[in-house]
Amino acid sequence: MADETLFELLHSEIVNYALESNEIKYKESKDEDLSIIEYIGFSTGFRIIERLTKDMPRFKDELDTMKFICTDFWSAVYKKQIDNLRTNHQGVYVLQDNGFRFLTKLSNGKQYLEAAPRYVAFTCGIIRGSLANLNINCLVTAEVQNMPSCKFHIQVQRT
Amino acid sequence: MSRSSTRFDTKKVNSELVTLTYGALVAQMMKDLDNTDDVSKQLERLGYNMGIRLIEDFLAKTGTGRCLDLKDTADKIQTAFRMYLGVQPNVANWSAAGDEFSFILDTNPLTDLVELPDDLKSLKYCNIICGAIRGALEMVQLDVQSWIVQDQLKGDQNTEIRVKFIRRLEDAMPAGED
């Protein structure tokens, strides 16, 4: 059983690693490619959700699944529940966390705001991966205006 | 109603989260670097970075002072293993000179749910632990080398991590302090 500190340090090393490999790949461009972080999150989410839900009854519908992500899943991974869940009932969900775990130790306000996307990419991946394994294809983006609060936008892709 | 009763064991989830995240990272590195030696080296460096920061957490939580000798150091690392990975390794195989010892782990949470394919047998999957030990000890003025002797992923009975004391690092202390 591993300690929480370990997960936080591992997460920041992943961010580090991704930034370094960016520097090697694109020396010139200033854009940060966070897709590596997102992908690592995706594979983690895809696997962990399978282990978490294996003894659970099937979810009723999409909203039920989202509720599960906001409550049980979030408190298992991030030690608290999502503070606010909003939806337009057409496949767009907004999850708001007012004290996001990876941002609380970073800043309380707008300082270092430009670095915030690096610390939410992993979680976007985790959400996308978890939902993908529950048969919901979606696009997840994050929005940080004032740390440590963060909004995750989930857009379900319907075919 | 029925679902509100499903509470997860957060400790277990956290542990699996670390295991799975680490696995995903190693897989990504394998894809990027395509060479097991480079990946092993990277993992060691990553562990080193983590160790540097982990030691502060450890000292703050346990409130221990300086190590008196290497036996003391070994005991404290043993405590750290229990705190951070939840395993209790045995300290064994002391060298005659008393400057080398091993940690023997019968279970390793990092390698839960992991299986190495045959073509990656040279990958040192747990190298991150070696790096963490080296980084943490460097912060308390101990220069050590650490490597893996036995690995359960490669069919051994236990995981054995060897630590060798190199030298004591001297601090350039400003005059009049400590």
Notes on the protein architecture:
The complex is a heterodimer of chains A (159) and B (178). Chain A is α+β, with helices and mostly antiparallel strands and 159 residues long. Chain A has a single domain, classed as Muramoyl-pentapeptide Carboxypeptidase, domain 2 (2-Layer Sandwich), CATH 3.30.1380. Chain A has five helices and four strands. Chain A has a four-stranded antiparallel sheet with strand order 1-2-4-3, covered by helices on one side. In chain A, a hairpin with a 6-residue loop joins strand 3 and strand 4. Chain A is globular and about 50 Å long. The model of chain A has no long low-confidence stretch (mean pLDDT 89). In chain B, helix 1 runs antiparallel to helix 2. Chain B contains four helices and four strands. The model of chain B is unreliable at 1-5 (pLDDT under 50). Chain B has 178 residues and is of the alpha+beta class. Chain B has a four-stranded antiparallel sheet with strand order 1-2-4-3. Chain B has one domain: Trafficking protein particle complex subunit 3 (Muramoyl-pentapeptide Carboxypeptidase, domain 2), CATH 3.30.1380.20. Chain B is 44% helix and 16% strand. Chain B is globular, with a radius of gyration of 18 Å. The A-B interface holds A 1-7, 9-11, 13-14, 16-17, 21, 36, 39-41, 43-44, 47-48, 51-52, 56-57, 68, 72, 75-77, 79 and B 2-3, 6-8, 10-25, 27-29, 32, 42, 46, 49-50, 53-54, 57, 83-86, 109.
From the structure above, extract its key features.
heterodimer; A: alpha+beta; Muramoyl-pentapeptide Carboxypeptidase, domain 2; 4 strands; B: 178 residues; alpha+beta; 4-stranded antiparallel beta sheet; 16% strand; disordered N terminus
Put the structure in a nutshell:
The complex is a heterodimer of chains A (159) and B (178). Chain A is α+β, with helices and mostly antiparallel strands.
